[in-house]
Amino acid sequence: MGEQELTFKEQLPWFLVSPPQPGNANKVRIRLNALLDDVVCRYPITLLAAPSGYAKTATLSAWSRESQSRVAWLTLIWEVCESEASLLSGLLSALHRLTPQLSENEAASLARVHLNSTGTQQTLEQLATFLVELQEPIVVVIDDAQLAGSALAEGFVRTLSHHCHGRLRFVLAGTPELNQHFNRLLAEGTAGYLGPADLAMTSHEIAKDYEEAHLPLSEGGAAQILQDTGGWPIAVQLALLSAHPDRGGAAPIAGAVLTEFVATSILGRLRPELADFILAATTCVRLDSRLVTLVTGAANGEALLEECASHGIFLDRFPDEHRRTVYQWQTQFAQQCQLLMSRNDAQRWRRLHSVAASGLAGHYPSEAITHALLADDHDQALEILRNSWLRVMIDSGAGLLHGLALQVAEREEVNAEVLLIRACCLDMLGDVAGSLMLYAQARGLVSTMDSVDPGLRSTMVFAELFLANEAQALAAAVDEARATMETSSRDAVSNAAQQFFLGWTELRLRRNPAAAVRLLRSALRQAEDAGLQNLARRVRVNLMFALSYGGYFSAARAVMDEAHGSGTEIGEWNRYDGGIECFARGFTDYWQGRLPEAKQAFSDMVDGGGHQASYTALARLYLVLCTVGIGDAREIRIAETLIEGISQSEQHGVPWHIYRTLATASLRAATGDAVGASDLMGGFRAVENIPVVLITAAEIHRKAGRTSEAMALLGGIAAPGMVSYVATGALVTSALISLERGERDEAHRKLEQALDIAAKESIVRPFMEADDALVRFMTEHAAWGTAHEEFLAARISHGNLGVSRQEILGSQLSTRELEVFGFLCTTKTADEIAAALFVSVNTVRTHQRSIYRKLGVSTRREAIRHRV
Prior knowledge:
Pfam families: AAA_22, GerE, WHD_MalT. This is HTH luxR-type domain-containing protein. One of its GO terms (biological process) is regulation of DNA-templated transcription. One of its GO terms (molecular function) is ATP hydrolysis activity. Residues 806-868 form the HTH luxR-type domain. The protein has 48 helices and 10 strands. By secondary structure, the chain is mainly alpha-helical. Among the domains are: 14-199, P-loop containing nucleotide triphosphate hydrolases (Rossmann fold), CATH 3.40.50.300; 203-253, no CATH class; 272-344, Winged helix-like DNA-binding domain superfamily/Winged helix DNA-binding domain (Arc Repressor Mutant, subunit A, Orthogonal Bundle); 582-672, no CATH class; 684-769, no CATH class; 771-868, Arc Repressor Mutant, subunit A (Orthogonal Bundle). Strands 2-3-4-1-5 form a 5-stranded parallel sheet, with helices on both faces. Strand 9 and strand 10 (654-655) form a beta hairpin. Residues 2-9, 246-256, 565-570 and 800-811 have low confidence and may be disordered.
């Protein structure tokens, strides 16, 4: 509805995290307020469970505004209930809405709580830390809690209420089935309960409502209404609305005739224009000014909604700070109106649902499909499914989408397109066998067709991107998908999702990082222009990794800074790229030489868990490489256990078996068995599109004395894969091989080329190999002449640090002296060294004299010779 996208993995729209605005239906009931205050004070969890029409939302809305406690509000809808992650995201959104009521320290602490890509446990721990430090408790109201009853009872509601020392209390409102999920807590006495008997109106409250409406009602009349309605609030309100001033009371009402009562005593007493408007407007339970105008055709639709709200006609208002308002009909009333509409004018009823489907399709596709099915318009439902399935999948909506696809499938014979979409859903949900079965059925149906229409062709192409495992098949699917996009016309929302998915898949192929960056930049621009903030956030973290993987570390850092602290969405899509943001940060740290920071990032991912073909598995490889680079023998032995978490087969185009072998070989080389490590990688010549593997393997071959094998691997790197850090590593290894072959000038030229590339992106890792020959060569190169003296000086001063350099120098030089020594190896003067280090010339001279004394030399030349 409106132009705001519903995003369920980050901040929710205001109308889901705010109580409805006070109205006639939100009257303060002193008895219920006192009862709620008492139960909430005594129990960490309070249940309000009663059938529809017991004014649970209105009661809690009125109580929340009168309460002395800080009250957060969360209204559940199906999309929010898809997973523990999306529920936790909803809770965080509700708490963030309370920020103006928090102290400065509390607000800062809450701002540090974010969804974590590796699971909900870390987020719950952060949230618990925030809660136990609160000065005053927070109460969270969760409306329509029956939608996620078991997930709440077994999830964060129980966990947080138990571990936060009373600083967080929950009030859960829902239909009676809510109770069954909390039976044990109710029996244990750790949850309180208010039911229909508590929520039913008393004769005194009925009389008070009539008095406030300026309608005379005797004590006997109030008792009669109580007897007729059982105190059911919606029935009492209906009776009140139907009461005529000269009648002295209201006609009896029973549940069996509620629909007729709405028709005659509510709608029948309104002017025809307003009554007809209400019948049409209740087509959508939740709507805004744009949607109500579209569905009802009334140019003054919002004014009519305001009239309904002001007269207490079962409508809640959710305004925001920008003066936008979302309206929500009370469910029981809307159901009665829709029963009337479908009974009296079925054709119009179906047409309005079709109109609603069209209006919701762009930003609320799942709701749109439901409306199309109610309209019995299968073609419309299928078209919405076709245009939105990819975006819903990307939004971690596979479970919901699969259910909708099943509903669409029930309306006609077996449909290949629906089967393909269901296959992709099952793949994301982890049901690989079921996915393959549906995929085979779909392909079988397609094979019997004389021709394939463009819509089915597009779905087939993008489904292949989900389901193909072999790199060659995946590459062909990407090329076909790109061609399909160029020849088809799609709306901006669908186009943004397709651009992202193409870029995401191109990234998995590793064949052309620059192309992946271009596609993701385009997708980001389109998602932002279309107001798709959730999609834009996902594109942004993938772009962060694409830039890192493409060797554009400066640009990646800029995106990281922009996204810093945004948290990471978790959900079904987490199966594909969970942890990608953390990995991108660790990957950048690794190649820029910040090995401890990189090791921590990858360790956090591994600790959070992940399957054998995820970014967590890739983090295991890089954690091995970090450990090898740092050179701690004990850590290297422990790192062997990481390898078991890496798959042994190719999946979705990723050669996990190659990564696993590289990790094993790297650890073996780190223990001194370079030849044994080299033997493990005998089949790497056939490897394509993984240049990091090739440069790492080439360096191991060089250390094993197999320079021809090393050069063969380096020669196998295709031009698109020769990104900055790959080119730097390849040139450094190639330079050392040239040096070993006596080709000294060629070696220096290659090293200078490596420095040309490395200096631009601060690429350090290839210069940190635990190899004395490399450090001697860099020192010699400083004298040979370089355009990158400062960069090279830093590499010399830190080269081998922690492996053998300190042993060579007898652990004598301080950190600053090592920096100065690195510059002494270059052609820089003392003045230039001072400028580079931001110290005075006298300070440089002092360090220089100390270095000479510790090394037992008297000149700069002797010091350099000592080092070499």
